Amino acid sequence: MLSRPRTAEAFPRPDEIETVSPAFIEVLSGLLAPGAAIVRLDRGDGGFRTASTFDAQGQHVPQPLAYRQAAASWIVQRVPGLDPQLAHELDLGTGRLVAVAAGEPAFAAA
Asked: What is the pTM of this model?
């Protein structure tokens, strides 16, 4: 996994899809293991099936499969029309949802 510190960025980013509400982030964060800072929607056949989570340094934060599936489902329902050909990352600190090129490593949007 890519490991690098978080940095401040100009807002909005050109690849930013949406900034989700703090209430949504609070509910989603309550589902996930402590330390999760980024939720990455994993591409699958026919769309997004699961999500992966990473801490602020880009290290993978293990989650039960059911939680990863629920997180992906909630994000897709909250932001309909996401391109299934791209991965997407949601920053739980800022609420920014950004598109990530298919070949980029996880946490590339940070």
From this structure: 0.78
Please write the tens of the pLDDT for every residue from 40-95: 988 776 667 889 999 998 899 999 999 999 999 999 999 888 887 788 899 999 99
Phi, then psi, of 77 in degrees rounded to 5: -70, -35
DSSP 8-state class, residue 60: B
Domain residue extents for the chain: 21-100
- What phi, psi does 75 have (nearest 5°)? -65, -45
Which DSSP category does 104 fall into? S
Backbone region of residue 107 per phi and psi (left: phi > 0; alpha: psi in -120 to 50; beta: other values): left
Distance CA 16, CA 19 (A): 8
